[in-house]
Amino acid sequence: MHDVRELLESEPEAVRRLARRRYTLRTDVLREAHRRRTEALEAVSGLRAELKAAARSHGGGRPSPQAREASRQLRERVQQAEAAAHSAEQTLTALLLAIPNLPLDAVPEGHSDSEALEVRRGGPPPAEAAGARHHADLGEALGILDSARAARLSGARFTLTRGPGARLERALADFLLDLHTREHGYTEHSVPYLVNRATMTGTGQLPKFADDLFATAVGDRELFLVPTAEVPLTNLVAGEVLDAAELPLAFTARTPCFRAEAGSYGRDTRGILRLHQFEKVELVRICAAGDAHKQLEVMLGHAEECLRRLELSHRTVLLPAGDLGFAARMTYDIEVWLPGSNAFREISSVSDCGTFQARRAGIRVRTPAGKEPAATLNGSALPLGRTLAALLEQGQRPDGSVTLPPALHSYAGFSQIRADGTTD
Fold first, then answer.
1. DSSP secondary structure string for all residues of 350-378
2. Which of 21, 37, 254, 259 is catalytic?
3. N or C end: fewer C-beta atoms under 10 angstroms in the chain?
4. Nearest to 401 by CA among 389, 419, 414, 388
5. Which of the following is catalytic: 346, 372, 415, 418?
6. Is residue 349 flagged as an active site residue?
7. In terms of DSSP H, where are the helices of 269-397?
8. Which residues of the chain fall short of a pLDDT of 70?
9. Catalytic entry in 349, 351, 380, 401
C-alpha cells in the first residue's frame, strides 16, 4: 500500500510510473478522499477538545441540567464525527489498497512476457525439441503421473504422483530446503496453510485478487488457503518493529499452494504446469528499504543456483512494467527449457516489493532517523511440479527412460527411472 501523501506530493511521477503498467491513477479522486479524511479527523479533534473544556468548566462540582444536556449533545456529535471519520478512513484505504506498486525505472517497457528482457542463460544448452515427449506423456508412460484419477477425486486442474514420481517430489523438496538452509542462510519454517483476511491483505492478495483464492468458512470464522508460502512467511513479522542490525531476515518454507487460476482456463491444460494445488519451496527476505536491490540480486542467485545444481537448461529474464505482479516493483523470471513444448516456461519469479507490502502489513525498521517501513522480497526456489516436469523432459532418453542429475541421486535413492517405471 502507498502513503497517500507521497503519491499526491509526487503526482506527475506517480502517474507516469503507474501508466507504464497500464494503470490510471485518479489523483483527483484520491485527493478528495484524502481531504475528506483530514477534515473528518480535524472535526473529531475539535469536538473532543470542546468536550474536555466543558468538563473542566464544571470545576468538579455538579453541573446544571442545562450543562448536562449540552454535554450529552456534544458527546453525540463526537460519536457522529468519529463515525464519519471512520467512514472517510475506510474510503481512502479502499482506494489505496487497489493501487499497484510503482515500477522501478530500471524495469523495461512492455505489457507481456514476450517483451521480457533476457539477462542470461544457465545450465546445459537447450536439448533438441524434435522428437521430445511432453512431460504428461512421459509421466503416464512411466506410471508416475495420473491426472485421470486425480480428476475423479477433485476435478480438472489436479494431478497426483505415485511411486518414483512421489519419491522424486519428496527428494526435490529435501534437496531444495537443505540447499537454502545449509548454504544460503535461510531459516526453515513450517507454517499454517490457512490464514486470515488481514494476512492476505498484508501481502496484497486481498482485496483485489479474491477470485483467485480458495476461501473457507466455519461458523463465523473466515480463512483462506495460502496461494504461496510468501503470504505466511512475510506476515511472520507483521506489526513488528525490526532491529536494523538483525537484517536481512531470510525465511523459507515448503507448502502446498492453492490457486483458483481465475481467467486462465484454456492455458496449459495438459500436465502439471498450471494446477489448482501444487507444492513449492518459497524464499522471503526482509531488509531495510535501501538494501532491497542488493537483496534482490542475492535471492535471484539463490534461485538460479537450484537450477544449476539440477543441471537444467534455463534463462533469466527481467519482466516489463506491464507484466509485473500487483505487489512487485521489479521482477526477474527464471524460465526452464521444456523440449516437449519447444519453449522456455516460467519456473520461478523473484520479486522486489520495496516497502509496498511492509506498509500494508505494518513491518517497520528502527533506524537512527526513526521507524521506517521495511522492504520485502520473495521468490520461488522452486515449485516441485514444474521442476519435476523439467527433469522429465530434459532427462528423457530415446529408450523411454529418464535420467536424474547427480545432485538428486542420494535424495531420491535412484539415478534413473526405467521405461517400465522401475528405478535404478
1. EEE-TTHHHHHHT-EEEETTEEEE-EEEE
2. 259
3. C
4. 419
5. 346
6. yes
7. 292-309, 356-361, 384-395
8. 58-61, 262-269
9. 349
